Amino acid sequence: MARVGLNAERLTRAGAELADEVGFDKVTVSALARRFGVKDASLYSHVKNSQDLKTRIALLALEELADRVAAALAGRAGKDALAAFANAYRDYAREHPGRWAAAQLELDYETALGSAAVRHSQMTRAILRGYDLAEPDETDAVRLLGSTFHGYVALERAGSFQHTPRTTEDTWSRILDALDALLRNWPKA
Amino acid sequence: MARVGLNAERLTRAGAELADEVGFDKVTVSALARRFGVKDASLYSHVKNSQDLKTRIALLALEELADRVAAALAGRAGKDALAAFANAYRDYAREHPGRWAAAQLELDYETALGSAAVRHSQMTRAILRGYDLAEPDETDAVRLLGSTFHGYVALERAGSFQHTPRTTEDTWSRILDALDALLRNWPKA
DNA sequence: TAAATTACCTAGGAGCATTAGGCAAACGTA
DNA sequence: TACGTTTGCCTAATGCTCCTAGGTAATTTA
């Protein structure tokens, strides 16, 4: 009964890899146990249950994504920062579709507060420092950016843009132009 | 063995109701059979399998949503049309969260082509007639609107905006102002 | 090296998806 | 109205996933 050396962290990382390979919704306790060559029941010493496992993967993904975005944002401002943020987000979803899906998992309030989701909103706010927005416009703009980036990646990944010939690259680039223009000329209340 | 009178349509409608009550991901063949007081196996004379059932619910939701949007759009143009479209979409998600989730189901290419998703993109394009956009800007704007509305509703429903005091109503209204302004001043390529 | 810990196992129950084959209710028709 | 056909729902059975309880052997600690 050679021990494999399981622990919560290894399970989480392997779960994230599995998610990227087969989709986050197909990450199951069984599939993960299979991957380690152990019985399902063995995982329950390390994670509480299936939900716990998924939450851990989501938190890992949020951290990774926040790190990437932070790195991309370093030393940039204005439209440069906007594009860096947006591209880091979209590229992550492209390279790690399963993890990106995991990051969309609904966390309960406390878990969310302790997660990297906080850094995400802080960084989104940081972008807006390059533009001239006072509250509550800044909050509205944060929400607009979050919605648009999330929505674009979600629809693009779902194939919703495939029915039209224009490449999603070109549209993406023009949408960044448009958002930059909008932030520079945010309408008065 | 009194017959209950099942058929694909009744199952689909009941499935949609169930989705609104307990969430689309909790719509299972078993749960639906339970609701009709029949055995699981009985449903398989009417729907091919679980995936088929979910697809039918998704198609129903897309139809309903398209009908609502069409009604809201009738006789409106410009910002009026933009707001009507956006509000119809958001209100539907609010009133029918399970169906809205169903409408996000990824359909295979052929199914999507035969669905009301086509009407959705046509109607989004129709909104833009009130603005002065030539291709490929129009396509880019269609994609922007779709992304933003979808993203906003998804994040709002997931509770992502709850950490900030500003109401999501106020932000929504200002985002519509902002999008209107953006469409009127779409940046040159 | 003995004791305590713990990593993984076996066994088993419950729910969901699905197929095969059966019986009786409903329907069409003579 | 009786007869045959269709079909709606059933029983039975399999396989997969989630999860708990309790055991044994490998590892760590004293």
Describe it for me?
2 copies of one chain form a homodimer. Chain A is an all-alpha fold. Chain A has helices at residues 8-22, 29-36, 50-73, 78-95, 97-103, 109-113, 117-127, 137-158, 168-184. The N and C termini of chain A lie far apart (69 Å). The model of chain A has no long low-confidence stretch (mean pLDDT 96). The interface between A and B is large, with 46 and 46 residues. The structure holds a DNA duplex (30 and 30 nucleotides).
Task: Summarize the entry for a quick read.
The structure is a homodimer of 189-residue chains. With 189 residues, the first copy, chain A, is an all-alpha fold.
Low-confidence parts of chain A, pLDDT < 50 over ≥5 residues? none
> Helix/strand-derived class of chain A?
mainly alpha
Query: For this entry, what is the oligomeric state of its chains?
Result: homodimer
Radius of gyration of chain A: 19 Å
List keywords for this structure.
homodimer, 189 residues, mainly alpha, 9 helices, 0% strand, DNA-binding
